[in-house]
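Hey,
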Amino acid sequence: MRTGSNAIKTAVTALHGIVAWLAVAQTAGAHSEGMTMSTVEIAREGVRIETVLPDRFFSASVSSASEGAREAASMEQQVARGYALNAAGADCAVSQPPEVWRLPDIRSRRYVVHYRCAEVPDLLSIHYALGALADESHENYVQVRAAGQRTQYTFSAQQRDLVIPVSEFVERAGRPLDARLPAPDLLTPGPLGFLVLGFEHILGGLDHVVFLVGLFLVSMGSRAVLAVVSAFTLGHSVTLALSTLGIYSPLPSLAESGIALSVVYLGVSNLVALRRGRDAHAVHPARHRWLVALVFGLIHGFGFSYVLKDLGLPEGAMFSSLLGFNAGVELGQLLVVAALIPLLSLAWRRLTYAPVSVALSIAIFVIGSFWLVERTLLA
């Protein structure tokens, strides 16, 4: 009864530590709403404009909740109409439905609009109608790319018209425009791609794999293995969703330091548990391991989320993309566990249990300590 009480106290203390860590963590700041960024790509097949706008950019024109819902649903159309393109005296038309991705970490959206012109332009005129929706301090920094050349322009609430001398780009480059537009700098996977991305991320994330190894360095039955895997899944799924959807997110440096700390903790706790294991009256070290997996899974979930936040989630498939990524993480996690358990069992039989687990726990402690110093003192 006493050992059970101690375990509960330990779990409560650990959860208090997590809450304190979350309280200290500050969310990443958003871009200034007076400044936006765009990229204009020009090729023979057409023009692509990518724009990052804060979510509140359109709020000034919204006067009611119902109107706000309608405005939010058509933001991509507003952005498409916000650039009026003209080449050789003819307007360039939007050639496909605009695409939009949420970037919750900076409370913004990324809009991608494709235009097709009747002729390959020597001069491309762009009227920045979005400037009429902005306040006097608004500026849109535009990078124009054509024929391998790049240059910078600035739209503002006062300066809304731009003429791009495409022929000069071609002359400087000494070659014609590319036939097709290049892939966007921020290329977002499709639904299946998010599953593959999650699978690759956990297998390529050495700190996550080392943590998983550390969890299973104490012997446990199949029910305990299932409990540990389920607890880790629950923990990181919660914070992955919270962070990716923009509800709460600590600074990446704090999350990465927390992950390193989780590896250090496992190394130390394994060594203590293995030493106590010699006592016949001691609690089996695997008994409450699921609590460790749950608590530190919360921190690892933030680490998983930064991949999605860098890419952005497709506006029309946010939840399916998030679920796909999480499913990929789970598949990778199960693959690690499925390979690890038989290898550990074989090593324990051949070399005996304690020496193998002690040696690996010391290695995990050293690796985690290196990461912790690297991510805090040397960052």
